[in-house]
Amino acid sequence: MQFLNLVLVVLAIFFNDHITRGFVLDGSSESYSQFRKWGGGTNGSLEFEFKTDRKNGLLLYTDDGGTYDFFEIKLVEGALRLRFNLGGGAQIITVGKELNDGHWHKVQLQRHEERTILTVDNVSQMRASRGKEFNFGKFDTNSDVYVGGLPKWYNKKLTLLALPSVFFEPRFIGSVRNLVYPDTEGGIPRRQETRPKDHRFPQ
């Protein structure tokens, strides 16, 4: 019984540490985390928290497998920039400043048909997409969600990226925690766990 209680205490400490401290990315060529596909659809949501002292770095990327649609979140000179395309042309939303202050910042991305809203620490900006169809790709063929950078094998498979330049963005150096989104179409948002990294070329 005492052993079981000890195990439960250790697990509770580990789980609480994971939530409060998150995972650390060092910016090296192998530094990234891979998560399940985002059920972004037409009315999806995604949120996470980050902490860094660097002004620039790729925080998150996902796309439709290399056609048109993508979502890229990165730090640019201390501000958070979302660049995205739903087939009608790229849009950019920039929120915040001096976010490289070493403190935790909360990012929320919300989709409502043609409207995309980016919120950082309760400050929001919205952009409306052009076109007639606002679904984010096709769930079956969309990429996984990458945080901090992309796998190195993309360098030889840039055609699989809807935004090839994302591969060459500076990798994020810092901590990320509490990544929450639906990982099924029309699903309920839930905290995501890291998937095993895939270092091989896709078949």
Automatic annotation (TrEMBL):
Q: What keywords are annotated for this sequence in UniProt?
A: Signal
Q: Which InterPro entries match?
A: ConA-like_dom_sf, Laminin_G, Neurexin-related_CASP
The answer, when asked if Signal is one of the entry's keywords, is yes
Name the SUPFAM superfamilies on file. Concanavalin A-like lectins/glucanases
- The residues covered by the Laminin G domain are 22-203
Q: Where is the stretch described as Disordered?
A: 184-203
Q: Which domain of life is it from?
A: Eukaryota
Q: Does the keyword Signal apply?
A: yes
Record's Pfam families? Laminin_G_2
* Annotated signal sequence range: 1-22
Q: Which GO terms describe its cellular component?
A: membrane
Quote the biased-composition stretches of kind Basic and acidic residues, using this chain's numbering: 188-203
Q: Which PANTHER family match?
A: AXOTACTIN, PIKACHURIN-LIKE PROTEIN
Q: What is this protein called?
A: Laminin G domain-containing protein
